[in-house]
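Appendix C. Worked example: Methyltransferase family protein
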Amino acid sequence: MDFEELIAEADAVSVDGWNFDWLAGRATEERPPWGYQRLMGERMARAEVAVDLKTGGGEVLAGVPRLAPTTLATESWPPNRARARENLGPRGVTVVADRDAPPLSFRDNTFDLVVSRHPVRAWWSEIARVLTPGGTYLSQEVGPASVSELVDYFLGPQPWTARQPEEARAMAEAAGLEVVDLRSARLRMEFLDIGAVVYFLRKVVWMVPAFTVAEYRDRLRALHEEITAEGPFVAFSTRFLIEARKP
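Step 2, the predicted output written as structure tokens:
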């Protein structure tokens, strides 16, 4: 397909939920070595009451073999919440609407397991509040300067100072939690055509805020020509795993 066909296709496809299957054959991303879903599944199998904060479309939680007897999930964006209810309802998970801001709408000492994959922000004092004594928080977060190569291409050089793993440790400890695991990874990504770039930026909306094909058509065309001439556009995502316990 030519440039116009690629961007038109990617601009029309739905970006609801948190599933990236549309990118198969168009983009690749190395996965973190620790296997977040596997780790979450191991902890879910031992939990009694659990919650997945910011579940997106519920795809990751739905893939866990055994859930806690009582499992809830939260999601703020209505299209994702509807998708999460479709994915998680058959497994007995209640999906709760939240405001994507503290406080969490749960009582103190409710959950022996809280999980969250790629939260925009971890509300550490609220996580500590809703965990039972001895309870666990497990999260995979986006790390510093993730996919900075792509963002800088569209927005120019950015400061990239936030989302440091050690800052997360400090905030968790300040909330009274004990950090028992903290690991980081830098992961290669390849965008094989310009459609993959358009889809990614439409879906991961905080990368290039207010991104539209019309607004960035010139940069998209230049990148398309670069990919056509030189091969995939390479960027690096960063992730960190953090696990903390409430004494």
